[in-house]
Design a protein that fits this description.
The structure holds two protein chains of two kinds. Chain A is mainly α. Chain A has one domain. Chain B is mainly α. Chain B has a domain of 158 residues. In chain B, 65% of the residues lie in helices and 0% in strands. In chain B, helix 4 packs antiparallel against helix 5. Chain B starts with a helix and ends in an 18-residue tail after the last helix. Classes of the chains: A mainly alpha, B mainly alpha. At the A-B interface, helix 1, helix 2, helix 3, helix 4 and helix 6 of A face helix 1, helix 3, helix 4, helix 5 and helix 6 of B.
Chain lengths: 204, 238
Amino acid sequence: MTNLPENLVPQPVGDPQPLPNRHRMKVLNAIFEKYALNDQISYYQKKTKRSRTAFNQVNVLRAIFAFLGGMASAIVAALSGADDAVVTAFVAVAIIAPALATTIATYSSVYDWERLTKIYRDALNNVFLADALSPRDDMTDEEFYMYLTAYSDAVLDIMHEETAQFGNMIRSSQQIQDFLDKSRQRAQSLIDDFAPPEDSEDSN
Amino acid sequence: MPDNVDKVMQKNIQQRKKQDPDQLPEPVTQEPEKSLSRRLRRPAMFQEFPSWKITPREDFGFIDKNELERILKDAPVDIKEEILADLHVLEIELLNRFFKERDYEATRHQNRYRRFQIIYITLAFVATILGSAQAYAIAAWPQALTTIALMETVVALLATMIATISTSEPPFTEWIENRRIAEFLRQEYFRYLLRIDPYDRFTIKAKRDMFLARRAAEINSGKYPDVRVENEDNDQPA
């Protein structure tokens, strides 16, 4: 006997309920498998793959821009007596490339791909486990009903858990928050500089 | 319980893990097909880039009608009618009344949230460039210092203005709340259809339908009823 979590082990129904028609159960099983289970598996698998790919793309771009910025700074230092236009071009790259690297890192934090990949992978593993309980044609009517109830309940419970935690998955980027705080301070200091003094006794 | 349940489970798990995600159909959403295929052609890091407008699909439903006909093809007539009647109730009481709107609002606010974040990131990038240009200009371009400082101030004011606009309908909170409600409604859809807890205690359809309508309304108003309820609403004999 496998060591399943308790909520995944099929339990006999409490009060005696009339057993649903086998045809009905098979049809509903087919609908649930296609539109709930497979849909959810497709969602988790695609999300996991796309998040991982996006995270890798971002990392490559960050590395490239950081490298370009470093190289441009080194070249500017080495070209101290050279033509102004050439030096200015490399200075521009030395300024823009690291800024782009930081921007891309901040953009990545909006989507939080690395963390989401782990969450969706864990949810996917749980759904696979629940799916393994799906009923089969060689079962008796009673077993079919028990397994159908247990596996659909388990899949919906997993979706329920993921939904309940959904808000905690997303976090606002700290860099964006810092930028907004600085902007507000700057705007406020401007307002304070130009605001009329509270007590103006001498007008001349 | 079948004796070889462990082996069957392991086999099922291994088969699922071998599936290529790219061969699987896209999850069912309200996004129109054209917009979805356009989005999927972009590099992965830009596939969820916010758009300026979100338009939902008009013919949205959880279950494709053609596929449903195929599944019901060999079913007895009474079973077919029963399931179609249940789907009809779900469409009226849950999908059309609540789910479509909540799902759309969740997508709209998610898009707003990301749009605001991208705008702030862009402004922060411009501010960084201007800051570095200012440092460079002190030695090389002193006459440009005032202009650069003015541009930095404009960027800061823009960021503050946009941040203030976003507080009127905070996109993050609205996104999370609407998405939570939509997903609870989706789960309720399948609980009702399969007649699993808490719908397994009703033998009278009208009572089951009323129970669904009530729970869907509660979920829509942000009250999330327990999945497993006390035995108070059933119609089983004592």
